[in-house]
Write a structure and sequence with these properties.
Low-confidence stretches: 1-7
Number of strands: 8
Number of domains: 1
Largest sheet: 8 strands, mixed
Oligomer: single chain
Number of helices: 1
Shape: elongated
Structural class: mainly beta
Length: about 120
């Protein structure tokens, strides 16, 4: 898909509220340890998918994970109804854990989530 088509499919997220963020470092055996964050984003139709991506650059504090929330409109004709869609990001941890996650939309921080360690 061309870059211009990808940009047309991205829906601005600054007007869309989010809720129920929860993040945890899964430190239970067996290795490897992993990290997870879940939440919900409000969107204008069921064809919009919410995704989280690590922000680039990450910042200077390795204990804080910076994430971008992106809303992507899937092709097709969708009913215009407001719904909450799930958001999730998972990754394998390499030698360290996170203490918090800051979630951004269009370079504006929309959530600050404390990370729980699960043993």
């Amino acid at each position: 898909m061309s870059e211009s088509v990808e940009k047309q499919c991205v829906v601005p997220c600054k007007e869309n509220p989010t809720r129920d963020w929860y993040a945890w470092n899964n430190l239970m055996p067996p290795k490897p340890d992993d990290f997870h964050i879940v939440g919900e984003a409000q969107v204008g139709n069921p064809g919009i998918v919410a995704k989280l991506f690590p922000k680039v650059p990450q910042g200077i504090n390795p204990d804080i994970l910076l994430m971008n929330l992106i809303l992507v409109q899937q092709p097709g004709i969708w009913p215009q109804i407001v719904i909450w869609v799930p958001v999730r990001y998972d990754k394998i941890l390499m030698n360290s854990t996170y203490k918090s996650v800051e979630i951004f939309c269009d370079d504006q921080k929309i959530a600050d989530v404390k990370v729980e360690d699960v043993h």
